Amino acid sequence: MIELPESVVLAQQINDTLSGKKVMNVIAAQSPHKFAWFHGDPQCYHELLEGKTIGKASGFGGMIEIQAEDAVILFAEGVNLRFHGENDKHPRKHQLLIEFEDFTAISAAVQMYGGLWCFKEGNFKNKYYDMAKDKPSPLSNEFDRAYYDSIISAPGVAKLSAKALLATDQRIPGLGNGVLQDILFNAKIHPKKKVKDLSEDDKDALFDSMKSTLAEMAFKGGRDTERDLFGCFGGYKTILSKNTAGKPCPVCGDIIKKETYMGGSIYYCGSCQAI
User: Fold this and answer.
1) For a tag on the chain, would you pick the N or C end, based on fewer CB atoms within 10 A?
2) Secondary structure of residue 16 in the 3-state scheme
């Protein structure tokens, strides 16, 4: 799943690998997927992109935006992106394949759900896209303590759990159920703890953890639960994830617990993150 660290990493890899390439062919919606979201008719993607030169890629929220002259390619959520070299075999199943004139390619395959949108610049209306572009990223200086305080003190937030604060209503685009686990662990906050029960020290720790944990994830090439443009796992070793559930906490040795909560899984150390 593309969350903020992966969007930043993938965008940089795309800039390093695809910038300046010219689109030769586009195959869209070859493998049917109920939850692969396209903009308009995906069969029109070829006409829209053919002959266009790939420009700058940007990562924001849980999205990756690629400029292609007057067109935009946008990936979001559960899309797996892979680069294919000149002599590489292309995958049999995919929801989007873009081939370039130098015979390299990029493919996109959807896991549970994901967006694969291609459109003329300015011709796409999506509130999640707008929020992801417009709201400050926790990786930026604009996401400062004053901005954080405006989020945590907003009406209705006090009754929410720490997980709901971080991962619902696009308060912080790109911060989802994956990255929030380590953010809360590093802040020593239980995911079910209510915002109204957070002390001032808790709030300070959560702000600091959000900034430092996300920065470390991005710097190390994403999380070790997610793959990059070349199919490699990220270099950030997750503390709390499906890979560590049932294992000893690296701080206290207590067993890392897994529960179902708010439609997904939460992981926590009952000792380090007492509720």
Assistant:
1) C
2) helix
